[in-house]
Amino acid sequence: MSEQPVIPPQAPTVAPSGxxxxxxxxxxPPRMPQASSGPHPGPAPSLTAAPSSGTAGTARxxxxxxxxxxxxxxxxxxxxxxxxxxxxxxxxxxxxxxVLLVGAATIPLTVLLFAQSSRVGPLVPTRTVLVTVAxxxxxxxxxxxxxxxxxxxLLGKASILLVGVIEETAKLVVPLIVLGLAxxxxxxxxxxxxxxxxxxxxxxxxxxxxxxxxxxxxxGLGALxxxxxxxxxxxxxxHVAWTGAICAALWFLVETSxxxxxxxxxAVAYVGAIVMHTAWDATTSxxxxxxxGVISVGALLTLTILAHRAFVRRALPPAGxxxxxxxxxxxxxxxxxxx
Length: 339
Hints:
Elements: E1 58-60, H1 63-66, H2 68-90, H3 96-116, E2 117-118, E3 121-122, H4 126-155, H5 163-170, H6 173-182, H7 190-215, H8 221-234, H9 239-255, H10 259-282, H11 286-315, E4 332-334
Antiparallel strand pairs: 1-4, 2-3
Helix pairs in contact: 2-3, 3-7, 3-8, 4-5, 4-6, 4-7, 5-10, 6-7, 7-8, 7-9, 9-10, 9-11
């Protein structure tokens, strides 16, 4: 009888005391931060954060640019008085061109800056205004002087009736070039371009009249001073206003869809400027001069205010597109996109 293998007895399995062990989640390697190509992001915006004080895409227009016309007027008056007194005390004739330039340019420059500076920014690019002043004045004074001399040789004293036509037409040549080359950047700013051309013309003409008053038989420094002051005060009622009104109508004709209305406005402005210019030169009546001055200054001020309002409407975003809670200060302007 064969022997059976002896199997050793196994120890009984004893259940461990206490709760069963909690299964461990599989370990996940830590996530490395990814490099960012842009700037480090800031904290996430809160839904209750206070809104910004301005609108997107706008920048604040400095107050000293908005009111630059006041600064120009005050500084110009001080500069004129100082240079004139110094010329008298030193008896230095080389200061005469400075006195003529400051005296002739102060008020026209003030009017130009007032028309250019709206509450949200300049109506026309500054370089365009400067080019118009320089070229408009030089070409206008040279062309008008040549044509008036020829008219005087042909018609004698009757040529005074053509002075208005000659000068108002000569001052429009450079603005027409600006309209053809830079209409997009001067949209709505026809009155500023006209004032710029009239400013250049008026400054050079006033300097000439002042020099003639100094050299005349009954003239002198007193006649020079009175001529510069009188013509400076009358500038807003003369070349500046007439050319500004014509150019405002010219830009309106190009931009409006009502061409018949635009043609009518241009005809009224052009003929009206010539009539007032001719009447101013042909008469010595003080009452008529005052009437022409009131009409001219009123028209210039009205056209400037209308141009400012139209520019503000284009520059500021519509009320419906402003984010809830934002507030416009009225001293901001839209940053133009680069051309």
